[in-house]
Specification:
Elements lengths: L2 H27 L1 H6 L11 E2 L4 E2 L8 E7 L7 H10 L5 E4 L1 H6 L1 H9 L3 E4 L12 H19 L5 E2 L8 H9 L3 E3 L3 E2 L9 H10 L5 E6 L2 H16 L3 E3 L1 H6 L3 H11 L20 H4 L3
Parallel strand pairs: 2-7, 3-4, 3-9, 3-10, 4-5, 6-7, 8-9
Antiparallel strand pairs: 1-2
Helix pairs in contact: 3-9, 6-7, 8-9
C-alpha cells in the first residue's frame, strides 16, 4: 500500500471515530434524542452510596418512579398538585423548607393527611457547602424541629438545596440520621416564565424504571403534572415514595440503606424506627 493510501485510510478511520464519539455525546446530552431512538435514559449503576448515605436511583428492574417535589409548601401550587396526585392515586415525597412549613401549616397537614411523605429541604433553603459547622447543623436540624412541633415525628430524608453538597454536608446529614436523596431526572421547572410543555417533555424524556423525578412545588409544575402522570400511568409506571423505593432496592443496596437509616448520634433509641420490608406483590417483588 502506498504512503498516500495509508494516510487516506487513517483519515477515514479517524473521521469515523469522531462521528461515533459525537453521536455518543449527543445521546448523553439529548435525552429526547435517546427516547426517539428507543434508547432508555442513562441511570446510575451505583444505586446507593454507602459512604455518603445517598440514594441515587431506585431498582431498575422495577417499573416504578419516585415523584419528589422541592421547595414548598407554596400556596400558589400545593393544593393543585395534591388534587392531581389524588386523581391518579399517586403518592409523592415533598422536600419541605422549614420556614414554609411554618408559613403554611394547613398545607403541610393536608399533605400528610393524604398519605404523602415529608422530607427535609433545610430551614431557609440556603446553599450548604462552605457553611460553618454550627450553621450547617442548624440549617438541617431546625427544619426537623419545625416538623416535629407539628407532628411529633422526625424527618429522615434530606435533599440539599440545589442538590449542592460537599463532604461536610454528607457527614453532618449522616450523623443526624438522614439518607440524602439525589435524582435521575431534573425537570427544570423553576425560575421565571417556565413553560409547562417544556416541563412535560423534559420529565418524560428523562424517566426510566427506578427513576427519582426532581420536580418543584411551583405553578408551572402543577399545570404540567396531569399530563406527566397520565402518560407514565399509560406506560405502566407505579408511583412510590422514597422510603418505598429504599425498601424495593436489590438486597445488597437495601441492606446498606438500612444500615444508614438510623445512625443518628442525637436521636434517642427507637425515636427513628428503621424501615421494614414491605409486603409486596409477586409482581413488584421481581428483581428484589
Amino acid at each position: 500500500m502506498s504512503h498516500f493510501s495509508s494516510r487516506k485510510t487513517l483519515k477515514i478511520l479517524l473521521g469515523g471515530f469522531c462521528l461515533l464519539a459525537a453521536f455518543g455525546v449527543l445521546l448523553v446530552a439529548k435525552p429526547g434524542v435517546r427516547r426517539r431512538l428507543g434508547i432508555s435514559p442513562i441511570q446510575p449503576t451505583n444505586l446507593f452510596d454507602l459512604k455518603g448515605a445517598m440514594l441515587k436511583a431506585g431498582n431498575p428492574a422495577l417499573k416504578e418512579v419516585a415523584l419528589t417535589f422541592d421547595d414548598g409548601p407554596h400556596r400558589e401550587s400545593r393544593e393543585q398538585i395534591l388534587n392531581t396526585l389524588k386523581q391518579f392515586h399517586a403518592k409523592a415525597t415533598f422536600f419541605e423548607v422549614g420556614m414554609r412549613m411554618e408559613q403554611n401549616p394547613d398545607l403541610l397537614r393536608r399533605t400528610i393527611a393524604e398519605g404523602h411523605e415529608i422530607a427535609n429541604h433545610t430551614m431557609f433553603h440556603i446553599t450548604l457547602p462552605g457553611l460553618k459547622p454550627d450553621t450547617l447543623h442548624k440549617g438541617i436540624n431546625e427544619a426537623d424541629i419545625v416538623y416535629y412541633r407539628f407532628t411529633g415525628k422526625h424527618l429522615r430524608l434530606l435533599r440539599p438545596p440545589g442538590m449542592r453538597f460537599d463532604s461536610a454536608t454528607l457527614e453532618e446529614a449522616k450523623r443526624l440520621g438522614y439518607i440524602t436523596v439525589s435524582y435521575t431526572a431534573a425537570s427544570a421547572d423553576y425560575g421565571d416564565h417556565v413553560d409547562p410543555n417544556n416541563v412535560i417533555e423534559r420529565t418524560l424524556s428523562r424517566t426510566a424504571p427506578g427513576g427519582i423525578l426532581l420536580l418543584h412545588d411551583y405553578p408551572a409544575t402543577a399545570k404540567a403534572l396531569p399530563e406527566i402522570l397520565e402518560t407514565l400511568t399509560k406506560q405502566g409506571y407505579q408511583f412510590v415514595t422514597v422510603e418505598e423505593m429504599l425498601q424495593h432496592l436489590p438486597p445488597k443496596e437495601r441492606a446498606e440503606a438500612l444500615s444508614c437509616w438510623n445512625l443518628s448520634s442525637e436521636a434517642p433509641a427507637g425515636d427513628r424506627p428503621a424501615f421494614l420490608p414491605l409486603a409486596v406483590s409477586e409482581g413488584k417483588a421481581k428483581g428484589l
